[in-house]
Amino acid sequence: MFKKLQRKVDPDENFLTDFIVQLFIKDLRPEYTIPVQAAISEDLATAITQARH
């Protein structure tokens, strides 16, 4: 769902990857935020994977 919204807001992918990852992390439920941040995700796909585990 996040990727779908990202494509609507930034169809040309002009936002920096770090910014996109931080937006994703910011909207996670509190119990997932710290573990995902601790993993220091380099890209959105990694952040999503961390959040799912």
The gist of it:
Helices cover 68% and strands 0% of the residues. It is built from four helices and no strands. This is 838_t:CDS:1.
User: What does the oligomeric state look like here?
Assistant: single chain
Helix content: 55-70%
The fraction of residues assigned to DSSP E strands is: under 5%
Q: Quick one: how many beta strands?
A: 0
**Poorly predicted spans:** none
Average predicted local confidence, pLDDT = 84
- Number of separate domains: 1
* Ends apart, CA distance between termini: 17 Å
What overall geometry do the principal axes of the alpha carbons give? globular
Distinct helical segment count: 4
Q: Largest sheet, if any? A: none
Rg over CA atoms, rounded to whole Å, is: 11 Å
Structural class: mainly alpha
The ordered H/E elements are HHHH
Strand and helix map with partners:
Layout (H helix, E strand, L loop, with lengths): L1 H8 L7 H10 L3 H9 L5 H9 L1
Helix pairs in contact: 3-4
Q: How would you explain this protein's 3D organization?
A:
It is built from four helices and no strands. The longest helix is centred in the middle third of the chain and has 10 residues, at 17-26. It has helices at residues 2-9, 17-26, 30-38, 44-52. The protein has one domain. The two termini are 17 Å apart. It is globular. It comes from Cetraspora pellucida. This is 838_t:CDS:1.
Question: Which key terms come to mind for this protein?
Answer:
single chain; 53 residues; mainly alpha
